[in-house]
Amino acid sequence: MLRPAEMVRLTVGVHTARRDAMIAALHEAGVVELLPVTDEERLHALVTPCRRSSAVPDIAEARSRLERAVETLSGFVPEKNAVLALFSRPPDHTISFPVTDAASVLEESTRFSEITEKILALHARDAAIAERMARLDEEEETLHLLLPFGIDPGRLGGTGLLEVRAGIIPSGECADIEMHLNEEMPELAAAFLLCGVGDHPATVVCIAHPDASADADRVLRALAFRDFTPEMTEGTASDGIAAVRTERTRLEQEQTGIEASLEVLARTHYAALEAMAEELGVMREREDASPQFGETGSLIVMQGWARTRDLPRIRSLCDRSADGLFFCTTESADGDVPSAFAHPRWLAPYGFLTAMFGMPAYGKIDPTLFLAPVLVFTFGLMLGDAGYGILLFLIAVLVLRGAGHAPGTVHDLAVVLCACGAAGTVFGLLMGSFFGNLPAFFGITLPFTIIEPLNDPLALLILALVIGVVHLNLGLGIAAYEHLRCGEQRELFFSEGIWFLLQPSAAVLILTFFGWAAFSPLVTTIAWAGAAAGIAGILWANGPLGFFSLTGYLGDWLSYARILALALATGGIAMMINILSGMIMGIGPVFLIAGILFAVIGHAANLILQCLGGFIHALRLQYVEFFGRFFDAGGRAFSPFAAQRIHTKPPEGK
Asked: Which one-letter DSSP state was computed for residue 299?
């Protein structure tokens, strides 16, 4: 619990006939991080790497098609309201497929081939319709621009005697364009200009003799002229617009039918297709692991990292899946050993908060045991309101029963917030705050009040600074223990010892200077000597930059004053909301509902603001002020070979 889980290097051998069964069992259990056997020098002469499975390309292709079908149908699956999804438990619609190896999963996927092809065909047709409708929009816009000139689209281009060009000039002042055309256009060519309105481009029709067409094109290109290329070659522009609109209506009707078909398919097949795609992904990952194994004769050898506590389970899995045709050996951990948390059930939800900062290096201190109680304690002080604490606790419980019911980050965060809400409730009662000073409006006094931040902020400030001293020295104590354990006496003295000497000396001198306490001359003299020795040690170890170590430590200590600041903010804003609500309701009976709504909305906003602020600042005290004293976050997270299942469950017996 104080250090990452003890790891061992695992070597497993299995008879070729039982290879797939044992790999599947380990994959579903997710308890071993695989290592390439070829990385082990002593095995080079004994084993050869297993070849990549020939089924992988077929699995990848089948999965790709299924995933494209799932992606197509996903747009027709009704989306849940984000808030409701957070508080409602998703239905447990997991599917189990009767598959044992690559061949069986490919065979199972063929059951979905027909429906997959139908979905992809509908999607392809829908995409073609969308592309065609975009082209029709361009065609209609082009024909509208030709209408004022009275030129049939079929006359554009060359007719032998004349060259006709029509198009747009996207930018430039109309007067400048007209002047350029008049001055630069050759004698055997004429240009007609229709200025655009607002941001619309100018439309130009140019008629030129074939001998002058090249010069006319040069003049138009200088203005970034873009040719019209209408599809229709017969009839007038008005006829073309009517034809475009007719075709668009037909395509829209076809598109509506396609969407209706896809919606029906989504209701009936989406879940099964999504599950089959996931099953193919699991099998693909399993088959991709083959090159990490080695083989020699009829023996398959694999290596990896495992937690010591998981060894009995691993041996049991291997025994059942390999029918006894296996061996399993372990070696002590060395080299690039991964880190995995070893937390009891009550502490496990806080592990992700440590992992957000960094994984502890293997064999070093895991700070989660210290993070959990201090985080909850400081958050409770910062929130300091029983009403808000109760609401936070209830919200967290609802999330825990809803989206957080399954293991994962949401579950862990909900558990942490439950503890934070309970702490906020307890400290709110001790601080006499229930939605601010709401009880006072009804003549009620909370019976357990000890400190009222708004009335006695100095008491809470002193408490916050005491917490800071204890917390910082806990970090120094942990660091000192690690240096002592590793036999690093010099680092112990200069990194922690001088601070243990300097702090009590400075406390005596400060208390004496301000007259807050009186000490004998001997104690004062020892304090001066201790302070001088401590400062000298810091400057000796760090040089002139040691001055910033002193100011940095002082800043870290004063940083705990944020506990007071957050507590005052919570109570002050809540009190303001209550006062304003009372003023609104006091205007008259008509404003009673308005005052109540203002109070509800105001307290809801304050709850969100203070919970976010309290959690972030409580976590910051851990990451910045505490972890920096001792935490070695250079660990590599344990990454087991594990099947990632959401929509499926392993076949019976796995």
From this structure: E
Interatomic CA distance for residues 626 and 629, integer angstroms: 6
C-alpha dist (Å) from residue 487 to 181, 480, 492, 502, 595: 89, 10, 9, 23, 67
Q: What are the residues whose beta carbons fall under 8 Å from the beta carbon of 423, sequence distance 6 or more?
A: 376, 377, 379, 380, 383, 389
Token output for 549: 């170590």
Residues of the chain with confidence (pLDDT) below 50 = none
CB 255 within 8 A of CB 129: yes
Place of tokens 């005290």: 621
| Residue 162 in domain | yes
Question: pTM score > 0.90 for this model?
Answer: no
Helix locations, 225-367, DSSP H: 237-288, 311-322, 351-357
- List the domain range (segments joined by +) for residue 328: 1-50+297-340
* 39 and 154, same domain (yes or no): no
| Residue 121 to residue 634: CA distance in whole angstroms | 51
The count of structural domains within the chain is 3
The pLDDT of residue 387 is 93
Question: Can you give the pLDDT at residue 605?
Answer: 95
- Interatomic CA distance for residues 95 and 28, integer angstroms: 15
Supply the DSSP symbol for 99.
Answer: -
* 36 and 152 part of one domain: no
Same domain, 329 and 378: no
C-alpha closest to that of 309 among 334, 340, 335: 340
State residue 324's pLDDT score.
84
Secondary structure in 3-state letters for 329-375: EEEECCCCCCECCCCCCCCHHHHHHHHHHCCCCCCCCCCHHHHHHHH
Cβ atoms of 274 and 267 within 8 Å: the answer is no
Place of tokens 């003295």: 493
635: tokens are 């660990």
Task: Locate all alpha helices (DSSP H) within 346-497, ordered by sequence.
Answer: 351-357, 368-383, 386-401, 409-430, 438-441, 457-485, 489-491
Token pair in block for residue 146: 């030709």
Do the beta carbons of residue 63 and residue 284 sit within 8 Å? yes
Q: Are 340 and 638 in contact (CB under 8 A)?
A: yes
> What number of other Cβ atoms are within 10 A of residue 265's Cβ?
19
Exposure string of 418-446, with b = 16+ CB inside 10 Å and e = fewer, is bbbbbbbbbbbbbbbbbbbbbbeeeeeeb
